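Fold this complex.
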Amino acid sequence: MSELISDVRRSDHNGVCQLRSECGVVIDLHIDRYLGQASRAERRFLRSVAGPVVDIGCGPGRAAAYLREQGTVALGLDASARLAELARSNGALCINRNVFDPIPFEGRWHSVLLLDGNIGIGGDPFKMLGRLSEIVESGGRAYVEVDAVGPTQQLTVREHRRGSMGAPFAWAVVSMAGIDDLITNADWRCHAVHTIRDRPTGERWPGTNRSDRLVVELERTS
Ligand SMILES: C[S@@+](CC[C@H](N)C(=O)[O-])C[C@H]1O[C@@H](n2cnc3c(N)ncnc32)[C@H](O)[C@@H]1O
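Structure:
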């Protein structure tokens, strides 16, 4: 992922970048949010997150940079070397790492962030949840942004932008309803659901009146 998105510059994009599956599932990527600073609503949410924090798939490092600015110990990690570098230049502590490879201080982090659909990284949310159990300490938290509605799906997608198309990779989408399935028989329970009210005016989840981003706070129970 992100060969195309890491090329996007605020000056040359029209804000449209999508992941598309072979069978027509379209996931919009929010380039302005991706490249911008944490919004007011995001900052409010992030202030409720206790450190030390790992921001998985941090991209340009919006969340990790803000947490660091607040004095919270926060490490971003991203599989793209270019994005990890961009995150560092944006003020985040960041390493260029695949989340499924070893990371520093595994099992000692209090919180992990999977924002902007990053529970879909690798295409298998159950495997990702298992990986989070290795990273987070007992009693720690995983903050997982989910779709308000819709199916939970495992997909093969490509990035599309301005007529360019990236290589296929595995991705998944998880909806609010899918979280229950995900944590059944796992060492996680749902502790709270946070809303981040920063979607553009008028933008709605298809088929609903909801415009808020939803972040499920999971607590590691074992
Ligand atoms: C949808 S973007 C989200 C970026 C950021 N969290 C945000 O909220 O804007 C997904 C990010 O995950 C990164 N990524 C994809 N696969 C990864 C992996 N296996 N390990 C670490 N990062 C990964 C991508 O490079 C990309 O920056």
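The radius of gyration is 16 Å.
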